[in-house]
Write a structure and sequence with these properties.
Elements lengths: L6 H30 L7 E7 L5 H5 L4 H9 L4 E5 L2 E7 H21 L4 H19 L3 E2 L5 E2 L4 H12 L2 E5 L6 H14 L5 E6 L15 H19 L2 H9 L3 E5 L11 E5 L7 H8 L7 E6 L13 H9 L5 E5 L9 H34 L1
Parallel strand pairs: 6-10, 6-11, 7-8, 7-9, 9-10
Antiparallel strand pairs: 1-3, 2-3, 4-5
Family: Belongs to the PhoH family.
Protein name: PhoH-like protein
GO molecular function: ATP binding
Length: about 375
């Protein structure tokens, strides 16, 4: 018995199948749409900042110079300004940075009724400096390498500098005491907590006279002070360093040239202080003026003074240790950050020195015993 479908039933079946196919296609399209519009890992967001209580023209600068500078400092963001509204489009992390900087700039204009390109750079760098401080970075080398403490005692040196006006850093070669001290001074200059850096060494080889050496003043001094230049050249671009030296913002001079000067608004470093006489170091330490920090570095195992001459550093440590405002940090073998072989060499020489001292002591005792017998 055959069932013949009516026209109405046939239409209903056709319509059902048609709707089923359309539904499946719609579902597939919707799935595709969801996949395509799935948010990226760093979705672009848009924000509007209203510049309240200030003249936007002053904020943007002549011919929008300040705005252009802001754009160049944040190349990952789209920054568009109209009237007193700044529209930002971009990555959320970058957005947070520029928002903070724009607010600091707005407050600056509100307070001083002006803002310069230099101010904007200081604001952006200031925020970066705060972030660096969390990571313990003092400054960056010209190759972009972060300069910071690498050992416990190096960190103690940084902390002693932060909490005292005068710091003695004593330890063998390679412990980073001079390099780190210069990094602290460069940081102070960049952050404007000091107006100048003064670096000095006692010119022992020239007997502090320098008269018999050939060449002009710079030629006479330079070879002995070269290690200080090397450290500075690592932290400041050559052109900037040259400019700072010509303007006397950075001064490098032998200890004899400190006589009669009062050193204010500066970070003053006396390197190789073990080679100062008691009179020289006393003269140097009393040169300290207002808003000045002093770092005195030295290595007691490398005294080049005549045998009968006492080391000024040794005497100063004995007299000044424990005084309020003075920090003393001793660095050792574990702080040597040069080649591992340097550590072994230092240790070998230390052992040799101890052996010689014991031998000398033994000979002296034997001599005394023979005198007593006589």
């Amino acid at each position: 018995m055959h069932h013949h479908l009516t026209v109405g039933q046939t239409l209903r079946i056709f319509l059902f199948r048609y709707l089923l196919v359309v539904s499946i296609k719609l579902c597939n399209f919707a799935t595709l749409l969801i996949i395509k519009t799935k948010p990226a890992l760093n979705p672009l967001i848009e924000k509007h900042i209203v510049l309240e209580d200030i003249d936007p023209v002053m904020f943007y600068g002549i011919n929008n110079a300040h705005l252009q500078m802001l754009k160049s400092l944040f190349p990952k963001l789209r920054i568009v300004a109209r009237d007193n509204v700044i529209r930002l489009l971009g990555d959320e992390e970058e957005m947070a940075k520029v928002e903070e900087d724009i607010e600091t700039m707005r407050k600056h204009v509100l307070k001083y009724n002006t803002i310069s390109d230099e101010d904007i750079l200081d604001i952006v760098k200031g925020r970066q400096t705060k972030a660096d401080a969390v990571k313990g970075v003092l400054v960056y080398s010209i190759s972009g390498r972060p300069i910071k403490s690498r050992t416990v005692n190096q960190q103690r040196l940084i902390e002693a500098y932060e909490h005292n006006d005068m710091v003695f850093a004593v330890g063998p070669a390679g412990t980073g005491k001079t390099y780190l001290s210069i990094a602290l001074a460069v940081k102070a200059l960049k952050e404007k907590t000091a107006k100048k850096i003064i670096l000095s060494r006692p010119a022992v080889e020239a007997g502090e006279k320098l008269g018999f050496l050939p060449g002009d003043m710079k030629d006479k001094i330079d070879p002995y002070l070269q290690p200080l230049y090397d450290a500075l050249e690592d932290m400041l671009p050559a052109v900037k360093l040259q400019d700072m030296m010509e303007k006397h913002i950075i001064q490098i001079a032998p200890l004899a040239f400190m006589r009669g000067r009062t050193l204010s608004d500066a970070v003053v470093i006396l390197d190789e202080a073990q080679n100062t006489t008691p009179q020289q170091i006393r003269m140097f330490l009393t040169r300290m003026g207002w808003n000045t920090k002093m770092i005195i570095t030295g290595d007691m195992t490398q005294i080049d003074l005549p045998r009968e001459q006492r080391s000024g550093l040794r005497e100063a440590l004995g007299i000044l240790q424990g005084l309020e405002g003075i920090g003393v940090v001793h660095l050792g073998d574990k702080d040597i950050v040069r080649h591992k072989l340097v550590t072994r060499i230092v240790n070998a020489y230390d052992a040799y020195d101890r052996e010689k001292a014991e031998e000398k002591s033994f000979k002296q005792n034997t001599k005394n015993e023979s005198i007593n017998k006589d």
